[in-house]
Amino acid sequence: MADKPATIGQSPAAPAPGARASAALQQVQSANAAGVTTTTGTIDRSNPFFLPLGTNLRTCESCHRLDQGLSITPEGVQALFAQTAGTDPLFRTNDGAVSPAAEISTLEQRRAAYKMLLERAVIRVGLPIPANAEFTLVAVDDPYHYASAAELSLFRRPLPSTNLAFLSARMWDGREADLAQQAADAVLGHAQGTTVDPQQIADIVTFEMGLYTAQTQDAVAGELVKHADGGPDQLSTTPFYLGINDVLGGDPQGHAFTPNVFTIYNAFAPPKKPKNGPNDQRQYAIYRGQQIFNTRPVTITGVAGLNDLLGQPSIAGTCTTCHDTPEVGNHSVPLAIDIGLSDAARRTPDQPLYTLEHRVTHQRIQTTDPGRALITGKWADINKFKGPILRGLAARPPYFHNGSAANLDEVVSFYNTRFGLGLSTQDHQDLVAFLQAL
């Protein structure tokens, strides 16, 4: 697939217009702390997505579970470890362990080896410093004694294999050209395959492109589909093309950017005579959170990939400045930015720390994950990552590329501190309620 504007339902890998009514669509519901998430799609378990295509018995579903928002969660990983004593195909040392050299002979060794997978539901991605990079690796502090310039250990969350028709970039660092290449690389890498069958890859992409996931029930507000426009069915009809509502002015249809990215919970706006039941109050909270997300002023400073790109040290924006895809919340064009998640100051003892030095200026940066820079080799791309699709968030904690936020409460706290939002306790709770309802 090429990176070109496409409307949902018209991509070569997606169902043709009008086909959804006759397709054998199914719904898979899964409970989470905030309510119920639902995935719709043609769930055919003979699809290669569900089959072991490599040598280590893994399938795509190993890291993209239907009951975990098409990603994996620590709770799910821990349950699987307990059921199988850490021998399920998910637990493989090539990328599931803290190091490919980790010992796994005993239960306790496996528990230590898969510590990051168990606690953060992160997979180890091994990438080298590019040969033509503008920087070198001058120091490594790896608690697992493996990482080097030949292969940095980067612990990242598996992105969800759903709502993919809205993607503007693939993988946290944007390294995959298209979904077919991503699937092929997963077979050869994560599944340790030796060959790739093009038809199987095409079938995987077709299956993934037909999946839509969103929250359908809130534990307090109740139905998010009958009373508002939540849920995957409504999402599947949402128009999209690359650059839609682009804050940088790149909308190919010439439409001006609007910060009112989310409208799905307009129906929860308080009436003139509001009721006082908990169901109503929660609905109002979700609506208020939506309005905060759309309209609360945010002074954006120090964000590499945005402030420097525009030549503006301070940008007056909102949450939707970066989360601009209507009703979805990722960026509608490839835009890797640095909001400080890999900074040395945020490093925890379970993460490696890398010291990078510019080849010419000898400036140094310490980071837990250089991000896009390991693909481009550019100094300016250090610590840059794409923003993920926000629908179905409640099903797939923890959050951020490294799983550093255990829940959405911590996500909101990070942004409140990072950008000085000045959220009141009520604002904070409303914003969390909205994100949980996506």
Main beta-sheet strand count, sense and barrel state:
4 strands, antiparallel
Structural class: alpha+beta
Poorly predicted parts: 1-23
Number of helices: 11
Mean pLDDT value: 92
Q: Give the N-terminus to C-terminus distance in angstroms.
A: 28 Å
Beta-strand fraction estimate: 5-15%
Strand order of the largest sheet: 1-2-6-7
Helix content: 10-25%
Provide the succession of SSEs. Answer: EEHHHEEEHHEEHHEHEEEHHH
Radius of gyration: 21 Å
Structure description:
23% of the residues lie in helices and 13% in strands. It is an alpha+beta fold and 438 residues long. The strands form four sheets. It has a four-stranded antiparallel sheet. Strands 4-10-11 form a three-stranded antiparallel sheet, with no helix packed on it. A two-stranded antiparallel sheet has the order 3-5. Strand 10 and strand 11 (364-367) form a beta hairpin. The chain is globular, with a radius of gyration of 21 Å.
